[in-house]
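User: Just a sanity check before I run the rest of the batch. Below are the structure tokens for the first item. I only need the designed sequence back.
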């Protein structure tokens, strides 16, 4: 049987408890919401990015988001979140199983729909679309990645990329930007970046054009969009717009960190906001930098740092939009910590660092990365306030995701609710409050 959610008023009760401000009333202002998900990035990951990009005494854009809460991200069946389970929770505001992708669970666990009291989908994106709001999904990985796709797609398992791609096009969202072109093109046909893999014969690019989407395939085409384009589908790589593997494997294969023809997540975010923000229409924009997660899971420190730089660029774009449009909520969180990335940069008494330049690991066996991978010289941080540049290495806890050190950051409308400790279900609650208000309405999906 399917899960039926309680009324929005009771859903919001936990959210209201985290703020000292009075509970929202029926007259609370409505606005737009931007959710930026730098996947796999804990507070420790951001510390590495800060040192490398701006220096230990300077601030990233992420640092300047004024409201902060400790993030609790456990699943219904696991203390560590999966990308698909975490994204489903962010999209619906309910605890789900770790295999879930827009359902209560997935695979052999027999996932069921997550529905409201009227038997309809309750993802915040579907609710926004039903209310006549615009929705955009921006992704540096394949467009079928759960961090964005879970907001509109529901499948038994996250490996069903063809089905997810079809649901993206059929969802009616206004902006879809990312990679994954191969899942939109049938076998026997070639896209811009290689052959299609769809076995059902459907060409989703043709279907998208028929549905009014303008199709773009490169940074230059994205920059040259017609001024009257209201629906856009951008596909900038066969799979991801990056190559997430170890430093050694990437060098051996001669691959770049990111494909140069693909726009950055910040560039995609800027275009999405220009389209969604027209005519003072409320909107939901979900943005994911997937490289922070995938490079972390591959224990590629240089790749994570570049992905952090790009994620912070997207936050800068969103912050500028919020300054010009104060009736907008900007909220950022990640569901888990990719690889358990930590920084080592402690000098010994003689002024030399404790770890030899070319050490492959530290005493407990944890792998140690320098600027070109394991066993290479250290990264050199950007200057501190005194102009000093300090060396550091990155030490890894694991391949894959671990738990701990996750934060929620926010700015703009309703951002004051982000404080103290915040459960992963409350991301959707706060987005609902901002887009649709606290009242119960059959038209908005209770």
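Assistant: Here's the designed sequence for the first item:
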């Amino acid at each position: 049987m399917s899960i039926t959610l309680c009324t929005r008023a009771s859903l919001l009760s936990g959210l209201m408890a985290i703020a000292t401000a009075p509970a929202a009333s029926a007259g609370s202002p409505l606005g737009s919401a931007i959710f930026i998900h730098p996947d796999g990035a804990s507070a420790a990951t951001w510390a590495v990015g800060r040192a490398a990009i701006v220096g230990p005494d300077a601030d990233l854009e992420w640092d300047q988001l004024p409201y902060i809460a400790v993030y609790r991200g456990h699943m219904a069946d696991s203390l560590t979140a999966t990308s698909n389970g975490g994204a489903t929770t962010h999209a619906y505001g309910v605890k789900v199983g770790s295999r879930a992708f827009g359902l209560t669970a997935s695979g052999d666990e027999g996932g069921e729909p997550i529905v409201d009291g009227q038997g309809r989908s309750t993802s915040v994106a579907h609710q926004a679309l039903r209310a006549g709001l615009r929705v955009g999904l921006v992704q540096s990985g394949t467009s079928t990645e759960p961090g964005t796709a879970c907001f509109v797609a529901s499948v038994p398992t996250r490996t069903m990329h063809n089905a997810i791609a079809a649901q993206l096009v059929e969802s009616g969202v206004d902006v879809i930007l990312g990679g994954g072109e191969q899942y939109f093109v049938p076998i026997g046909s070639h896209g811009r970046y290689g052959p299609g893999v769809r076995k059902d014969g459907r060409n989703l690019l043709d279907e998208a054009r028929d549905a009014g989407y303008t199709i773009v395939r490169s940074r230059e085409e994205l920059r040259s969009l017609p001024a009257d384009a209201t629906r856009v589908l951008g596909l900038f790589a066969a799979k991801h717009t990056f190559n997430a593997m170890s430093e050694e494997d990437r060098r051996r294969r001669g691959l770049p960190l990111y494909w140069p023809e693909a726009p950055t997540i910040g560039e995609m975010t800027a275009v999405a906001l220009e389209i969604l923000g027209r005519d003072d229409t409320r909107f939901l924009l979900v943005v994911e930098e997937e490289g922070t997660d995938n490079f972390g899971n591959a224990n590629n420190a240089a790749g994570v740092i570049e992905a952090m730089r790009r994620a912070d660029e997207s936050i800068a774009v969103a912050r500028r939009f919020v300054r010009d449009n104060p009736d907008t909520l900007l909220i950022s969180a990640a569901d888990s910590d990719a690889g358990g990335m930590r920084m080592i940069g402690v000098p010994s008494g003689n002024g030399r660092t404790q770890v030899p330049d070319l050490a492959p690991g530290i005493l407990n066996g944890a792998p140690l990365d320098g600027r070109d991978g394991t066993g290479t010289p250290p990264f050199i941080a950007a200057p501190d306030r005194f102009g000093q540049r300090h060396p550091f290495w990155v030490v890894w806890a694991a391949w894959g995701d671990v738990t701990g050190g996750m934060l929620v950051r926010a700015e703009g409308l309703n951002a004051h609710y982000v404080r103290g400790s915040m459960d992963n279900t409350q991301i959707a609650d706060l987005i609902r409050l901002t887009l649709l208000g606290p009242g119960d309405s059959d038209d908005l999906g209770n």
